[in-house]
Write a structure and sequence with these properties.
With about 550 residues, the protein is an alpha+beta fold. Helix content is about 45%, strand content about 10%. The strands form 2 sheets. It has a 7-stranded antiparallel β-sheet with strand order 4-3-2-1-7-6-5, covered by helices on one side. The chain has a two-stranded antiparallel ribbon with strand order 8-9. This is PH domain-containing protein.
């Protein structure tokens, strides 16, 4: 048996647990470190070692040999030899990928260069593209994910002539979407912060009977969405050496001593209080909109002071929010798909008249042009958003049918369809705006809203067709010029309207449109879905599938 075969046999015995490592002689081979003292210096010996390790099929043996050969052979020659050994190549690729993944949430690009060279040297460009995409979607931290995506995009440009078609476009679109989502998340967090609740023991400044000398009393302070309440605890309090860690171990019922209702325009800032008898550098001062002092609390530490100021400021800012932010709490936009991000944009950034939307880069029209969103998907998302915010007037204007001639004319205004797209993108913000007063709903807080359902119930049903059509909102004609609602199917639109409890007149209109277009749907190849109100009935789901006669199969087994 040659030295190479004997070495591989010893490695296999060790990794399979057939021998006791402690009982082996000192000159035995236990792992890849022992290979460096063997007389394996020639190129033929190393190739023979790779071949023998490949024959074992043991990943541990193969990896030990790869560690040794990769350090003692020139990198281009090493990559060239790996092509002849599939198991060794896969094992080495797996090892390099693991080196790129430092933790479960971060990606290290330091080891990426060796993996790139390996893929390129072995002409595995498809695997290289898959690996680069996996690195992008692996990192969960937004800022880190964007940095990795930028670096991967630059690396991909070097091999763009070898990658599958469309990969560079996919990477560029992902980087653009991620950057836009990060920018939107930063802006919207400032615009609509989440509700902050805090509770801690703090010293509250109060005035004596004479209102001349200030005194401080320990209180349990609780911050809620609407107020700051402070309580006096009747049980004994344990002193732990730090006022911020004061705890009530008796757990007796606390007695409310007072509260301060949060109002719009309140001013919250830090205060370095210096009195005659005490110095308190970590105080929080709360004043009303006119600047009159309302409450002073001692947070004891600079960190506590910063947290309380930020929390109270967020809750005060929420009092002046647009009602839509309060009715529909937002979620983080990072890693949203284009469709999800479009609906988010329609819901919160659809009205260009709002201050937070006026200069926003994620307006629906801009997203449609940037990511080339299909007109039918765009219109369907607009209908879903209108139903969500109960903007029935806009939804009715969107579903109004048009003749084929008017549709063709609107699509080729000025002989250039691109002009229509640009016009629709600039006016699209009015489609889902809240300028029209929606009907009240359990999740709506618009003031002065009128119940469209009750108002339409007083009108005779026969007047639906005879009533004059409502004027289409500004910019609606451009959006309707993109695609007709019949291209989506009135069955799906009717399902959305019923699910959101649309007014009877809109439901009647959609029912009539659905019946008129059902015959056209039956003549064309495709499918239509219609869900009845009673979803518990299995027969309520009706699916029609049109199969051409040329592919039909005789199913009569009589």
């Amino acid at each position: 048996m040659s030295v190479v075969e004997e070495t591989v046999a010893q490695l296999l015995s060790v990794h399979l647990g057939l021998v006791d490592i402690n009982s082996l002689p000192d000159d035995s081979v236990r792992d890849f470190r022992d290979l460096y003292r063997l007389p394996l210096h020639s190129f033929q010996d190393k190739c023979h070692l790779l071949s023998a390790a490949e024959a074992t099929g043991c990943s541990a043996v193969i990896l030990d040999v790869l560690f040794f050969v990769s350090e003692t052979m020139a990198p281009p020659l090493f990559r060239k030899q790996l092509v002849a050994f599939p198991l060794s190549l896969n094992q080495w690729v797996y090892y390099l990928v693991e080196q790129c993944m430092v933790t479960n949430e971060t990606v290290s690009l330091g080891a990426l260069r060796g993996l790139l060279d390996l893929y390129v040297g072995t002409n595995r460009y498809r695997e290289l593209a898959a690996m680069l995409l996996s690195l992008i979607f692996y990192d969960k931290e937004p800022d880190r994910s964007l940095k990795v995506a930028d670096e991967v995009l630059e690396i991909s440009k070097l091999y763009r002539h070898r990658f599958p078609a469309g990969l560079m476009q996919l990477l560029d679109e992902y980087v653009t979407l991620t950057k836009l989502q990060l920018e939107t998340e930063i802006e919207d967090v400032r615009t609509a912060p989440e509700v902050c609740t805090r509770q801690a023991f703090m010293d509250k400044r109060s005035r004596g009977v004479s209102n001349l000398q200030a005194n401080w009393r320990m209180r349990s302070v609780r911050l809620t969405e609407k107020e700051i309440a402070y309580y006096k605890h009747e049980g004994k309090l344990d002193w732990s050496g730090n006022k911020a860690l004061l705890v009530d171990k008796t757990e007796k019922r606390s007695k409310k001593k007072g509260s301060l209702v949060l109002t719009r325009g309140m001013q919250v800032d830090t205060l370095d209080y210096r009195g005659k008898f005490s110095v308190r550098p970590s105080c929080v001062r709360i004043c009303d909109a006119a600047g009159s002092e309302q409450l002073i609390l001692d947070a004891f530490t600079p960190e506590g002071q910063r947290q309380w100021v930020a929390a109270i400021t967020c809750n005060v800012k929420r009092l002046g929010l647009d009602p839509r932010w309060l009715a529909f709490p937002r979620r983080c936009v990072h890693r949203m798909t284009v469709g999800e991000f479009l609906r988010y944009s329609m819901l919160y950034h659809g009205d260009a008249s709002k201050s937070h939307t006026r200069h926003s880069s994620c307006q629906p029209g801009l997203l449609r042009e940037r990511f080339k969103i299909d007109p039918k998907r765009y219109l369907f998302s607009a209908l879903v958003t209108c139903a969500l915010v109960r903007d029935w007037k806009t939804m009715e204007a969107l579903v109004q049918p048009r003749s084929a001639k008017s549709a063709i004319i609107s699509l080729f205004v000025g002989g250039n369809s691109g002009k229509v797209s640009r016009a629709s993108g600039s006016a699209v913000s009015s489609v889902w705006s809240s300028t029209s007063t929606p009907a009240p709903s359990p999740y709506s807080v618009w003031s002065g809203s009128i119940d469209a359902a009750s108002s339409s119930a007083n009108r005779p049903s026969a007047s639906l067709n005879s009533a004059p059509s409502r004027p289409v909102p500004a910019g609606m004609t451009e959006v309707q010029a993109m695609v007709d609602a019949s291209a989506i199917g009135y069955g799906a639109i009717l399902d959305i309207a019923e699910q959101r409890n649309a007014p009877p007149n809109l439901l009647a209109l959609l029912e009539s449109l659905h019946e008129k277009n059902s015959a056209k749907r039956e003549r064309s190849t495709g499918w239509a879905c219609r869900r009845d109100v009673d979803a518990s009935d299995a027969a309520s789901m009706k699916i029609t599938i049109d199969i051409p006669e040329s592919v039909r199969v005789d199913t009569s087994w009589d």
